[in-house]
Design brief:
Elements (H helix, E strand, L loop, with lengths): L1 E4 L4 E5 L4 H12 L2 E7 L5 H12 L3 E4 L4 E6 L11 E4 L4 H11 L5 E5 L10 H9 L3 E3 L8 E4 L3 E2 L2 E3 L5 H12 L1 E2 L1 E5 L7 H8 L4 E2 L5 E5 L8 E3 L4 H13 L4 E8 L6 H8 L3 E10 L2 E9 L10 E3 L11 H8 L4 E5 L12 H11 L5 E3 L2 E6 L7 E3 L4 H13 L2 E6 L11 H9 L4 E2 L3
Parallel strand pairs: 2-17, 3-16, 6-7, 10-12, 11-13, 20-21, 24-25
Antiparallel strand pairs: 1-25, 1-26, 3-5, 4-5, 7-9, 8-9, 13-15, 14-15, 17-19, 18-19, 21-23, 22-23
Helix pairs in contact: 1-2, 1-3, 1-6, 2-3, 3-5, 4-5, 7-9, 7-11, 9-11
């Protein structure tokens, strides 16, 4: 894509469905006892991979035109595809890690793989607890996909995860649904809690009374439900950032998920002086939903700089690439640490963020576990390599709106992994001459 700057964003937008919620509703509906109607399901390629996988496991996913009906077959209702189940998670780590928990307790062997990027991402963090529960999982010496999962009768465990990860938590709790007894999961910091909230909606016997710990009673059948997926706040982050830093910008985002474990990015922007407010709050399936209103404001760091580290990192991990772009326009220093996890995402996001900033004439200090940026900086049009990473493509599309001149985003179409309508939405908010595909 070629994107011309400087520009502004003005208007209103309804975002596609939340990816994290969509993955989970598809998986849990597939093992419920009967059909669940889902509206607002995410349009992303990642979530389509989840639907493709459960379909290959014998689950009827019915497209009604206004939504989906997922015909659940019960806890042990998956059927092994013929030939042996090779399920393709494409680029979706969420699909592979979470679905592995459900496959581990089935009574057949399956194989789950993905694209080259996903097959470089670590799976030891799910192999370890699932093996402790009695599953047998074959992987490469480096614990990489493809994974061959020999489903077996599972036993409940108490597992203390060394990392805060909503995907690992979901994997263990999903396996716990198929295990005899109560499975307990704890983590060093609170990760997003969509899994716990949704399990309760399906009638799961979940206990979250202890801080940082959640448990599930196994072998309890789930009750189907009707579910409306809210707009994706992680996708909203790109447009919120744009409206915050581009002069003369005003933006309304409607019906966005505002789960407190997902809105730390809004808190960070607020601490920097951004004009971001939420309104029309309501509860929907135990998830907080509302509108987000944003307008341009001068952003300033604290006198000694802003340090983002420790417990906040798991709850802004997806937004760190766009936060780096914002940081170039903040008066003062913004430093991100304890984010080494970024090195093993769809790309090495510390490296690709640093390369993108520099390609637009900016300056960034790179660390093994993060980076530091001192602004405000003048950006100029350039050529940004995305490394096929959807969040890098979208973050630097916003950076291109700041830059003077034209910026080329290489492999821009990778944004479809999470947000197929991204460039169409960007064009609608900035004007018809701002964004154009490269022939």
């Amino acid at each position: 894509m070629r994107i011309k700057g400087p520009a502004r964003v003005r208007g209103s937008l309804k975002l596609p469905g939340d990816k994290s919620i969509s993955h989970r509703i598809a998986m849990l509906a597939s093992i419920a006892n009967g059909p669940s109607a889902v509206t607002g399901f995410a349009s992303s390629a990642d979530c389509q991979a989840t639907l493709d996988c459960i379909s290959k496991l014998g689950i009827w996913v019915e497209d009604t035109g206004s939504g989906l009906v997922i015909h659940g077959e019960g806890l042990f209702g998956y059927h092994p595809p013929e030939p042996i189940a090779q399920l393709n998670a494409a680029n979706s780590g969420s699909t592979m890690r979470m679905l592995a928990g459900l496959l581990a307790g089935q009574r057949f062997t399956s194989e789950i793989t993905g694209d080259a990027s996903l097959c470089r991402r670590p799976m030891a963090r799910i192999i370890e607890p699932l093996s402790s529960m009695g599953a047998r999982i074959d992987a490469s010496d480096a614990s990489l996909a493809p994974l061959t999962i020999h489903g077996r009768k599972l036993r409940s465990i108490s597992y203390a995860s060394p990392v805060a990860s909503a995907q690992v938590k979901a994997c263990v709790l999903f396996a716990g649904l198929l295990a005899d007894g109560r499975t307990v999961f704890s983590e060093p910091a609170a990760s997003r809690d969509h899994t716990e909230l949704m399990l309760r909606q399906f009638g799961g016997l979940v206990d979250c009374s202890s801080l940082g710990t959640v448990s599930i009673q196994g072998l309890h059948e789930l009750t189907p439900l009707d579910y409306q997926v809210p707009g994706d706040v992680s996708s909203a982050a790109f447009f919120i950032a744009a409206a915050s830093i581009l002069p003369d910008s005003e933006l309304l985002l409607r019906d966005v998920g505002l789960n407190p474990t997902r809105t730390a990015f809004l808190d960070v922007l607020g601490d920097l002086g951004a004009s971001v407010r939420t309104q029309k709050h309501r509860e929907q399936h135990s998830e907080l939903v509302g509108d987000i209103v944003v307008s341009n404001a001068q952003l300033r760091s604290e006198r000694r700089g802003t340090l983002l580290s420790g417990a906040i990192i798991p709850n802004i991990i997806d937004e760190i690439p766009i936060l780096a772009v914002v940081a170039t326009q903040v008066e003062g220093r913004v430093e991100v640490r304890d984010a080494k996890e970024l090195r093993i995402k769809e790309s090495d996001r510390i490296q690709t963020v640093a390369g993108g900033i520099r390609s637009l004439g900016g300056e960034i200090e790179e660390f093994e576990d993060g980076f530091a940026i001192t602004g405000p900086q003048r950006l100029v049009g350039g050529r940004v390599e995305t490394s096929g990473d959807h969040r890098i493509a979208m973050a630097f599309a916003i950076a291109a709106l700041i830059a003077e001149g034209t910026t080329e985003i290489i492999d821009a179409e990778c944004a479809t992994v999470s947000f197929p309508e991204f460039y169409e939405s960007l064009t609608m908010l900035t004007g018809p001459d701002t964004v154009e595909p490269v022939p």
